[in-house]
Amino acid sequence: MKEMIRTDKLVFEYIRRDEEGNVEGITRAVDEVDMSVSPGQFIAILGHNGSGKSTLAKHFNALLYPTEGEVYVDGMRTEDGEHLWDVRQEAGMIFQNPDNQIIGQIVEEDVGFGPENMGVPTDEIWERVDESLKAVRMDKFRKSSPNHLSGGQKQRVSIAGVIAMHPKCIIMDEPTAMLDPTGRREVIRAARALNQVENITVILITHYMEEVVDADRVFVMDKGKVVMEGTPREVFSQVEKLKELKLGVPQVTLLAHELRKSGVPLPNPILTRKELVDALVGIRNSRKK
Amino acid sequence: MSIVLSHVNHIYDEDTAMAHPALIDVNIDIQDGEFIGLIGHTGSGKSTLIQHMNGLIEPTSGHIFFDGKDIGEQGFNKKTLRANVGLVFQYPEHQLFESDCFKDVCFGPRNLGLPQKEVELRAFEALSQVGFDPNYFYQSPFDLSGGQKRRVAIAGVLAMKPRVLILDEPTAGLDPKGREDILGLISSLHKEMKITVILVSHSMEDVADYVDRIIVMNKGRVAFDAPPKEVFSHYKELEEIGLAAPQVTYCMQDLATAGFDVDTSVTTLQEAKEEILKALSKC
Amino acid sequence: MLRDITLGQYYRADSVIHRLDPRVKIVATFVFIISLFLVKNFIGYLVAGLFLCLCIKLSTVPPKFIFRGMKAIFFLLLITMVFNLFLTPGEALLSFWKIKITKEGIKLALMMGVRLVFLITGSSLMTLTTTPNNLTDGLEDLLKPLKKIRVPVHEISMMMSIALRFIPILMEETDKIMKAQMARCADFESGSLINRARSLVPILVPLFISAFRRANDLAMAMEARCYRGGEGRTKMKPLIYKKEDAIAYLVLVIYLALIIVLGRILFS
Predict the structure, then answer these.
(1) Which of A55, A100, A170 to mutate to test the interface with C (most CBs of C within 10 A)?
(2) What are the boundaries of each domain within chain C?
(3) pTM of the predicted model as reported, rounded to 2 decimal places
(4) pLDDT digits (tens, 9 = 90+) for C212-244
(5) ipTM
(6) What CA–CA distances, in Å, run from C22 to C15, C138, C142, C202, C233?
């Protein structure tokens, strides 16, 4: 089976210049990253600001090209100009700021923007817009102006705009960073539905740990490198290392970790409240015997 | 020093078809040295509320008293009020404009008409208070990281020597490390400078560890105004208005339901840990 | 609230005029304006006036909305009329000192006044019944022939619609920036003109930086959604002429014929 996305020793460097334009130095934003994503997976990339995760993501959509190494999207090398538009159609992208990625003045017109660019016939654009807005449950707002929507709703419109291009993969670059908790939940729910119902590969880039608990695979980035990789369970079991990387661990996992340090024999890791309560009940019952 | 809001109402676009109330009969009493968390989700009226406190917005009805004086009265000096009640807005990008950080921090005190020497002294002091690296004093504020920009923005307000510091979602858009740093900084400003702090946030977990009083806003009304423990004990009502108590509060509730003898009013991780250890030792 | 500001003063309704193709409305407005300059006599103005009234009636837009636009040009109107009134040579009716009012002057002033009022009313009617979006679409289509002489028609219309989307956002942002600076005791209201101009710097700098950042983000988002200019692009809402549009064009031709016959030939 072809991989959805594969990177091969991907390096991205940019040249820093001072105010006069003289070269000050070279920064390696992405450093020899090997990554492979299978179709249908829900992938999370974690890392704090400046860890290179957004730079990496922009390679998946051919917005940036590697300095060294290669990126393949659905078997197509992103640097081959002939595939450019296929790559961008297959790997859709959602950005952080909800205001700065909506082009249309009416919700439905914005959703139609992608298909229009692809040269989709008019009748089909309407079909695509209908189904995409339904998929993110924004069909009620189709005639609204984006300016009257909440942050979470705007991000859902952006997601619909990408779905209308019939992508195989959606890359979401910190889609929740500027939203309040309600908006964050809406967006994550929409992302998960896409993955489960439409079977679209999702790559979620975030610094909120709670959002990645249900991912199939988690990559943790620091200083341009992938420093941890595995299932959420594998990653969250290394609380000390995550703390060292200055990533916020969910409170329950942290509480379990603290209790474990004080000698309570809890399994590692604990990801949900239910797991913690069940484990503590188990301990109590065994002591009573 | 005190800020008292008495029956404050604010209606946007009054006398038009689009009129909608943003604040409804708000009564709040803020005393010297308090550390308050102001919580509510987007559109709850919390932003409108804080802008009333430094006179940027005037109430449609009701009164606001600063140090016992009605700020709505003719001749009340708004400049002095704004210097005393410092307000830091959510995005530092909205206020940074000078070519270097130091000059930018000078903007506030200079507007107060202070002599140049005093202005620079205050700017220097404020930048040190927020722990800003002196190597960056003369760098452009636009090249800084999100967390550093926020420090400069906070310094820009601190340089006016306010007695009350209001921060509107100072951690929005920051990563966990940046969040922790800024919250730590605010907490130390409160302790060391004995300044009254009002921290606006939509995250309970952010404020639970620091503040000694929480005001919850919902649809323009004050829903709760009490110490954290008491507010979080209403976790079910909080959920109804789209807010949530910290995760540990829920853990303790679950444990109590499962028959553990734990105090369900704990709000911080440390307290929760001690409670669970105590409960386990009784088994 | 600032986000509710609509540009170009669109009045929401569902009338025959609202439903017409934007191209018809643009052409009609253009023809109407030209017709005003063709008219030479009273009958011609009467025909133009009746035509305008008919359109207003059909549009269901309350007249007060239409005449609201008139306030802005009131001074222009006044000046034009006064100039014409006093500076037209001819048979003097009234004269005192060096100023004289002539018969021709009164006639010309009245004509200019009516012409200007009709002109403004006609074009307001177009903007009141067409969304800015439709207007750009219509313009883009009508200006298509200019592509042959390398006028970037598609790009211009894309720029216009992006501007329309971002103006309310930037207005709101300006408000936030002003408040952030006022919280630092900035004063925008007092002082000399130079001081006041200088006090705008703390607003303009953050606003420009933000606008550039937004432009950058938007360009990237458009590229990510396969935007590559007007070539090979299809339309979600293509402009298609309907029966009503054909009728409207016919009415327009009849109107123009009437104006030429009645306003120029018959009574001249």
Answers:
(1) A100
(2) 8-142+241-266, 150-224
(3) 0.86
(4) 999 999 999 999 999 988 888 888 888 889 999
(5) 0.89
(6) 13, 5, 10, 41, 20
